[in-house]
Queue: 2 jobs
Job 1
Amino acid sequence: MSGTASPRLIANWKANLAPGEEVELARQIALRGSARQLAPGSLLIAPSAIGLVAVASLLRREHAELKIGVVAQDCSSDDPGARTGEIPASHLIGVADAVILGHSERRARGEDGRAIGAKVARCIDAGIVPIVCLGDLDARATDVERCDAVVDQWRGVLAGAAALQREEAAVSTSGIIIAYEPVWAIGSGRPARPETVAAVARALRSEAELTSAPLLYGGSVDGKSAAGYVGGSGAERVDGLLIGGASLEVESLFQIAAAVGVSR
Ligand code: PGA
């Protein structure tokens, strides 16, 4: 995804829907996408782990022309083996194109930079794109403080990958995508200011491994706010959006798609 590519939207369905509902929503989105000329490759959907295979097979079997990507919401920090309940990154090959890592809703359950970095390493080995979420915690912080917080988080992730001998060069050539998701903006109805997102993008792209990494914004995006984030140039470029609540309804998702110019 380069700066000139069309914006990319990732629908993060979290644990909101049962697998049957996820398949039905994916079907409705694909049908609307065909009718509204959704740009091929501009949308990725992240269903729950249990809905992943069914959604992926529906989209590939019946709507391949839209090239809707499929994203896992997490993966294991370990290799395959005797690890009950884990989903190794290598088991996602052929199912998911990318994996969301380090979402704040997982960090809140104890996941730290070391674990996220280990997951990045597993994704690199599996050839699956890591989408690493970074986000500051305090709604009253200054932009400078936010930049420092997310750069610190990034360095923690990098250290976690380095602990498994995946050095900076491997990370920067993995196709890694960064999602800036200020925790106070997620699900709060209070999205970050576009100037804040641009400042954070610039700060992260001053890190050697992220100079050319695509950067997404996520946090209470809707059809009204979406266009304000996407675009820009140089280190402040924002390449797309990670969408939670507004991705659970066909209508609100397509309001965003139209606002950023990837559908009619
Ligand atoms: P939201 O979620 O759009 O509901 O704020 C974004 C996210 O957590 O990815």
Job 2
Amino acid sequence: MSAIPPIPLTMLAPQALGVRTHCPYCAFQCGMLMGEDLGGDLPRVSGDPHWAVNNGQLCIKGWTSAALLDHPQRVNTPQLRDARGEWRSAEWEEALDFVAVKMLAIREKHGADANGVFGSGALTNEKAYLLGKFARLALGTANIDYNGRFCMSSAAAAQNRAFGLDRGLPFPVADVEHAEVVMLVGANTADTLPPMMQWFDRQQANGGRLIVADPRRTPTGRLANLFLQLTPGTDLALANGLLYVVIEERLTDERYVADRTNGFDAVRAVALQYHPARVERLTGIAESQLRQAARWLATARSAMVLTGRGTEQHSKGVDSVHAWINLMLALGKVGKPQSGFGTLTGQANGQGGREHGQKADQLPGYRLIEVDAHREAIAKVWGVEPASLPRKGKSAYELLDSLGESVKSLFVVGANVAVAAPHLSHLLPKLKALELLVVSDAFHNDTSAHAHVFLPVLQWAEEDGTMTNLEGRVIRRRVVSRPPTGPRSDLDVLHQLASRLGCGEKFVFRTTESVFNELRLATAGAPADYSGITYAKIEQQDGVFWPCKSEDDPGTPRMFADRFHHADGRAKFFAVEHREAGEEPNAAFPLFFTTGRYKEHYNSGAQTRIVGKLSSAQPVPRLEIHPRLARRHRVVTGSHVTVESRRAKVEFVAEVTADIRPDTLFAPFHWGGRAAANLLTSGALDPTSRMPEFKLAAVRIAKVG
Ligand code: SF4
């Protein structure tokens, strides 16, 4: 195959501190000012005081993010395995030829769907869009999904069903400041989104009340005016119990329910089964606390419920989110000023990443791959026949579960499935059974340890593009740092591979902006309509909230004020019942095990575990255990303990803390290998979103020795 010159992406000259860009990590996408090599003790990163989301604040991950740019472990040349299974450097042409030849052979022998693609919520909108196009056109496979399935899919599914549209926060984060009551459910923002705490601080300083529901008294829970330490997996019962109180005390907004919603009668009938005494048995929340929370939410002029992964990462995650939405619709709060329901997106571009076609059932703009009109719209933009587009593929866990069986190759772009997926003891051998595993990233990670090919790519500050933050605000990521010679953009890699697969002409883009312009075209008239967003408008307005339907349209910071996105303009209630988790504690496995995050680490830890300041602050995962349970097992802080589920046994160092329930253990999931918390979690999936149940496994504990 002949060499194809790389795409000349837009490259701005690196400048002194002062280039406005955004943090590489989470969906808060803090505004940053960056410059190159200022020398001395000066940081190369500072918070952007004029970015109205973080107002100059960064967390420790943001402050240390520039350490990744000149990190000694950076991979600068493509790598292939030699005959002994060791990595050897290769030229780009050799590596790309090797990948393409293998993909073609697998397609020839096993069919197009035997090539799988696994994307990421960390990719820019342009990359997410092009990766979906690459899978459907160049590979012709239905099997593309991404790690956002593990993160956001339950909230997304419930919002799409209830409101007709999913945007994590349907209002700017600054609205929090003026809400009289905010309820955070399963969200530890003090650790996961530290700069967001300024908005809760202001809200409380204004006389507002903060309610937090979580099985752990987290740093966020400690700040709450009312803390509800519920049993893991009972969020749905708690929300139904709150609705019971609201109905019983005649606090529903009957006018709003009649004018703006459908389906309340069925929900009312179900909610009335959730008497506070029953809810207390299920959740552990006392009736007095339940009534207090319900009255605060109902009688406040403005109130919002914000959910996180604690509610969503369950085999009943979609129904749990529905229960919270039902409550806020019954209170008539959704679409009102400084009020409503929202979910706190986790990954850097978790919002944009789920809108532009790297999900097995979706096409760009939140179009659905099984809807003929949506297929026709995208086929027209891509210049192909609608019938040539693959149908819906396997969801993330199911895709990984089929590796080595119906799926023979996997192209992993910006994800680390060997840490972030559940039930790793089951999935890791499947990675090893692949005929071809290609990892595209800046650093080796736990997944590339099993790969046949490693393709080194540019990092966040080395190329431009757009991200969509947790508010649905489309923002610009800018070039700040000159990349080393060797790594290429993912956009270039996709073009090069597509050319070798016989489809290169569909992937010729002169600049990143030209990819965005095709994305705009592909989303015109779609639910997530970006067609009116331009790079210039993003500059002028400090970001543009979608939907934005024309160049005259300033965008939509607040949604649902007048109508919802169903054809009749009304929101839908869904009657949902509490049900057991995929597995509940029993005599053999008597404890709940739940997972979460440290403020020093991001997701699978592939980036943050190699940053010295972060890894020295949190070098290993610790198992949180209540003093009562610890005494029973003669465990003290620092003891080595094993935690065992039906799937695996993992050794941790114990941290005894009264902040956790006596029936629950907690460990972070940022580590791989033998310390991987996800060895313990199960492959139970939500039936609608196909999101795994990361937040609940039944386990037992033993002291080592
Ligand atoms: Fe902000 Fe998130 Fe980056 Fe921390 S990790 S600086 S909260 S964007």
